[in-house]
Amino acid sequence: MSTPRAAKAQPKRKTQAKTQAKTKAGAKAQAKTKTKAKAKTTSKAKLKAKPTAKPKGKARAKTKPKTLAKADARIKLPTLAKVPGVSIREYQRRRAALMSHMEPGSIAVLPSARTRIRNRDVEFPFRQDSDFYYLTGFVEPNAFLVLTPGRAFGEVVLFCADRDPHWELYNGELLGPDRALDALGVDDAFPVGDIADILPGMLEGRERIYATLGDYPEFDRQLLSWVKEIRARESGGAIPPGEFVALKHLLHEQRLYKSAAEIGLMREAARITSAAHIRAMRACAPGVNEAQIEAELTHEFMRNGARSVAYPCIVGGGENACVLHYIENSAPLKTNDLLLIDAGCEYHYYAADVTRTFPVRGQFNKTQQAIYEIVLEANLQAIDACQVGASFNAPHEVSLRIMVQGLVDLKLLKGSVEANLESEAFRKFCPHKASHWLGIDVHDVGDYRIDDTWRELEPGMVLTIEPGLYIPNNASTAELAARWRGIGVRIEDDVLITSQGPDVLTSAVPKSVVEVEQIMAGR
User: Fold this and answer.
1) φ, ψ for residue 116, nearest 5 deg
2) Which residues pair with 188 in a beta bridge?
3) Over pLDDT 70: what percentage of the chain?
4) Separation in Å, CA 509 to CA 72, 250, 266, 338, 506
5) Catalytically active residues, by annotation
6) What count of other Cβ atoms lies within 10 Å of the Cβ of residue 95?
7) pTM attached to this predicted model
8) Cα(299)–Cα(289) distance, rounded to whole angstroms?
9) Do residues 147 and 156 make contact, with C-beta atoms less than 8 angstroms apart?
10) How far is 2 from 238, CA to CA, in rounded Å?
11) How do residues 46-101 score in pLDDT, each as one tens digit?
12) Cα distance between residue 53 and residue 20, in whole Å
């Protein structure tokens, strides 16, 4: 299988705006845009003739390109994420909001994700960098977004792969710089092959660079080399950037609060995931392999428009449920075991994250039900604790106390609840926190603490509630009766914080003992 590279061997293109980027602010361009077909040219010349500088933080209105040739005008753009409810204006608002928090005289540079090799010349399916996607909605590799607040000729600039008929023959249509203006709502766009000629000029004279250093080391080295070259010309009047600033804090704080459009996508991801879990319950039976249950999940995801899982499916029967991130999914299911499924789809880049545990034979035995109902009560009480103004850690504290109380009542822990909380003796059964942020990433971004204090929950935040108890069948539990050993139970839901109380996005998935047994009885 041939694997051409999107960014290599791209023809370079000289543009008037490129000359602007290489000169100092306010200098007049001398070159004219070269193009092979007038019908496909953009209005960069107009941007030069009538530059309009906007206040810091406001996205500059773009000038629309001339009408594309008829053949291009009819072409569907496959490299844009067709996201229900997320408009170009929303992406523009996101970029404007980010720029409004950047320091004066700054510039931000964000690389897209790169294609990765699975083996030999076979690539993994491409998945865009979450930050880059959040700001652009653009799903091609080998691209760069540049934000320059106050830049007269456009604050938002994209570098992306140019159209290449040979590459497109093998891989599908590219968007190309010309069409990016309308399709993405950016102010200007250039072939990525020209970035070394254009970006250094945009960096020069800026006081600081906001960057995501560490994520893409190869680009980090290139960026540092451009800054070094500018510094080498200081004696001739060049003004290099004075410092690098981490972009992630500003951007990730913004991503923490979900818009109405994002919430709509997460509801759909939750709906699809809920249907998949119900399907898995109905498919479960003694002798069925864990992999077959995984196939039921992914089938339901894809048939509903979710082309990918949000993370590898965890399908653990019996003792496998006690392995927190078990993904081998290869064992046959046994009649008297529980099955733990932790699986969620990714719908238009937004994740769901759901866990349910249920009996393979369709009915809980008394031992299983005793553990299950402790975890269920912890789940329900933790959800009730998801109130505006409560600390992020409040649901975990509530759920942990309930689980420790339950373990003490069953005599699986010795001593009082307070003593076990103080000594953390519970950790061999409750090893993880009960919550994390959820969004474009399954473990989504955003600080959990502010000034070493758990942050308060606010409307628009989405988090998981996932208490779990695990009693492994190993030396650590040798003193327990055999009936308890090898049981793992986790129950996880996705919760939106609202001023009216917690909104459980995944409430459609049964979790009471009666509901679960009824679903499985109808198999």
Assistant:
1) -125, 140
2) 157
3) 84
4) 45, 35, 15, 17, 6
5) 121, 325, 342, 353, 432, 436, 443, 466, 470, 490, 492
6) 23
7) 0.85
8) 16
9) yes
10) 44
11) 333 333 333 333 333 333 333 333 333 333 333 444 566 789 999 999 999 999 99
12) 14
